[in-house]
Amino acid sequence: MGIAASELCRYVIRPTLVYLGRHSQTAEFLLLGIAASQSELGSALHDRRGHGLYRITELRHRALWDDYLALDPERASLVRGLASQHAFLSGPQLELTVNLRYATAIAWLLVEQHRTELPRPDDLLGMARIWKEIFHPQGRLRDFTQAWHSCVSPLNQVAC
Q1: Number of Cβ atoms within 10 Å of the Cβ of 148
Q2: If you placed Cys at 119, which of 34, 123, 142, 159 could pair as Cys (CB 3.0 to 4.6 Å)?
Q3: Contact call for residues 37 and 144 (beta carbons, < 8 A)
Q4: Contacts of 138 (CB under 8 A, 6+ apart)
């Protein structure tokens, strides 16, 4: 069993997006859908596909820092501020597993790195396409929509 979608949204995703200055309802829903599709909202935090809620590989994590965040020192500093001091230096990929806000920031930046526009918050297929393109190219759009309906959809009945 993973994290409740409403709590993940309220205590992790929303504050992280606000901290980054990137908050929107679509961004919240997209990250919830990605976490649902990748790890069933944290029911398993590590497997061969990557680390944490969003299943980010060490290679993608390192490439984001080298190719994207290194070009924006202010944003890099902001994201680095979410990581724990010693753990980040000794094993930055571990932060993707144990630090939910850091992992959420990295997941969001992977989206931002590849996409300038987001679909409407009610465009589930649009969000599924972003998930497939950025996080799971071998995935099927229906994998995202099924994960959404089983893990996130009840959230729509209760505001997060």
Answers
A1: 23
A2: 123
A3: yes
A4: none
CB 91 within 8 A of CB 51: no
- The Cβ-side half-sphere exposure at 57, using a 13 Å CA radius, reads 8
**59-104 per-position pLDDT tens digit:** 999 999 999 999 999 999 999 999 887 666 667 788 898 899 999 9
pLDDT at 45 over 70: yes
Retrieve residue 32's tokens. 């919830």
Tens-digit pLDDT profile for residues 9-24: 999 999 999 999 999 9
Domain count of the fold of the chain? 1
CA 94/CA 58 separation, integer angstroms? 9
Any idea which residue has 């009945």 for tokens? 157
Residue 122: which domain range? 5-157
3-state secondary structure of 53: coil
Spatial separation of the C-alpha atoms in residues 127 and 130, rounded to whole Å: 5
Contact at 8 Å (CB) between 64 and 109?
yes
Tokens of 105: 């920031």
| 159 confidence band (pLDDT: 50, 70, 90) | very low
Q: How far apart are CA 25 and CA 94, in angstroms?
A: 28
